[in-house]
């Protein structure tokens, strides 16, 4: 497997099957809690302008909209965006959804805050991953905040079984994970067994450590960079998540 994920691989991985198992992996109460953590750690207020990169089917963006933020969600998957828009309409919330690639953003000095939630960073090679950070920096106004939530690779290596299964009724989503020690990437082979059919997709992402985030974010134009664990607690080697908050 290479050191980047192509657009067609992303579209295949983040398609209808991703939505089908979404609420099993992240039930509504988890999404409520996630939205609260993001609200607090980005110091959001009523009327704050917020950009979610890789917003998926809008489980976070729509909740932040309900709390009173002015939210723009960008994603590369048309299928997930259609679901995000339908959910926004159902909730009667106004969120702007855009089809696009986070490696090239149209805004300059526009947002109070931006975030990439739930392992949405690192799909590409180092140059493109750093391009994403530069594009976010340009999109934020001076003093704007960026939050990136990712798996903590120390905890991942220690605790995670290489096979992770999610079940919804008779349907199964089976993830077979491996680490590439030469590229610091995690590879994920996904097998979907649904309605009697079997489909395979895969994803791979770079597992950056906190000091690497600091170097990349400083070079993209950010100043202070902070580390938190899951739900905003202290970041330790046992934390399941690494949540990075950077200030422009
Ligand atoms: C792991 S999902 C997370 C979705 C959402 N943040 C959540 O918490 O439910 C990653 C998302 O990033 C999107 N994505 C991947 N590469 C992208 C790119 N280059 N530009 C924009 N979105 C991208 C995928 O389509 C997917 O919706």
From TrEMBL:
GO MF terms here are: methyltransferase activity
Q: Which CDD domains match?
A: AdoMet_MTases
UniProt KW Transferase keyword: yes
UniProt keyword annotations, A-Z: Methyltransferase, Transferase
Q: Which residues form the Methyltransferase domain?
A: 50-144
Q: Which domain of life is it from?
A: Bacteria
Q: Does the record's keyword annotation contain rRNA-binding?
A: no
A Gene Ontology biological process in which this protein takes part is: methylation
Classification via PANTHER family: TRANS-ACONITATE 2-METHYLTRANSFERASE, TRANS-ACONITATE 2-METHYLTRANSFERASE-RELATED
Q: What is this protein called?
A: Class I SAM-dependent methyltransferase
